[in-house]
Design a protein that fits this description.
Layout: H1 3-11, E1 31-33, H2 46-56, H3 63-70, H4 84-105, H5 111-121, H6 124-134, E2 141-143, H7 144-149, H8 154-172, H9 174-197, H10 199-213, E3 218-225, E4 232-239, E5 242-243, E6 247-249, H11 252-267
Parallel strand pairs: 1-2
Antiparallel strand pairs: 3-4, 4-5, 4-6
Helix pairs in contact: 1-2, 3-8, 4-5, 4-8, 4-9, 5-9, 6-8, 8-9, 10-11
Length: about 280
């Protein structure tokens, strides 16, 4: 992963908090198109495309796809040269990949829970926030009228993220698009799952422990492993003197939710969902 890509990921805000800045200023170096002027990467902005590719962590074999993904209808020679068609395709790819990731990662979640998480992480607001965090507004190709307005609509930011997904899919195939989506949407899936849906397990265990054992559960951190940027945590739920099957998670919140799930299963005489070793 390039340094630009790592820096962009550090700037990614949580989708679950706040909204994209609707008054984001257009950068001074944004490409503003004359009405009949096409963007020419060979003579105009080759370095801009290189910086954009470093920023998103993907290098195109067909750079024209990248140009199309960055081109708003106001900056295109005609509508078919804008990113509208790519946005249409990218929206479908994003939804399908997120559904697959949710299905693989959360086998214990019911359809309704998966739908809620998906709705949060593929929303227009979510896509706009990721685009803003990546600084994609620096690379947009827009008409002079929009450039003069000094504001970037959140809808435009959402469109360019979905357009990039489609462009990467067409350039590098399904796997490349899935890696791109997982890189930037994956962390938000975890936040949505552990923050909204996953909270059910800890809440259920709390209620059961107080009702049946007259006590509240505690969560013990037993182990952690991996480099600082990709640590995993091993946590066990405990009620009184009874410690239940521990579980690993990609963050402490996820590990606690899984540990609570294991505890509920054991209390109910079932096999734990998550194996700790």
């Amino acid at each position: 992963m390039t340094s630009d890509c790592r820096a962009a990921k550090k700037r990614l805000p949580s989708i679950l908090n706040g909204s994209p800045d609707v008054n984001s200023e257009l950068p001074a170096n944004i490409v503003a198109q004359d009405e009949n002027l096409a963007f020419d990467p060979e003579s105009d902005q080759p370095s801009r495309l290189d910086r954009c590719q470093r920023r998103i962590g993907y290098h195109f074999q067909n750079r024209q796809l990248l140009i199309e993904a960055l081109t708003h209808a106001s900056g295109a020679e005609h509508r078919l040269a804008s990113n509208e068609r790519l946005e249409f395709l990218g929206d479908a790819i994003l939804g399908a990949v997120v559904c697959e990731l949710l299905y693989e990662r959360y086998p214990q979640y019911q359809e309704g829970d998966l739908t809620k998480i998906k709705s949060a992480v593929v929303s227009r607001q979510a896509c706009a926030k990721i685009s803003e965090a990546l600084g994609l507004q620096e690379f947009l190709i827009v008409g002079r009228g929009m450039a003069a307005s000094q504001t970037i609509p959140p809808s435009l930011l959402a469109d360019v993220f979905e357009s990039l997904i489609a462009a990467i899919h067409l350039d590098g195939g399904n796997d490349a698009a899935k890696r791109f989506i997982e890189q930037y949407i994956g962390p938000e899936i975890e936040l949505a799952a552990t923050g909204d849906m996953g909270g059910n397990y800890k809440s259920l265990l709390q209620q059961m422990a107080q009702r049946d054992f007259y006590s509240s559960p505690s969560y013990q951190l037993l182990d952690e492993k991996g480099p600082d940027h990709r640590k995993c945590f091993k946590v066990a739920a405990q009620i009184g003197s009874t410690r239940y099957q521990a579980a690993w998670g990609r963050n402490k919140k996820e590990a606690e939710q899984r540990a609570a799930c294991n505890a509920l299963a054991e209390i109910n005489g079932e096999s734990p969902q998550y194996i700790s070793d």
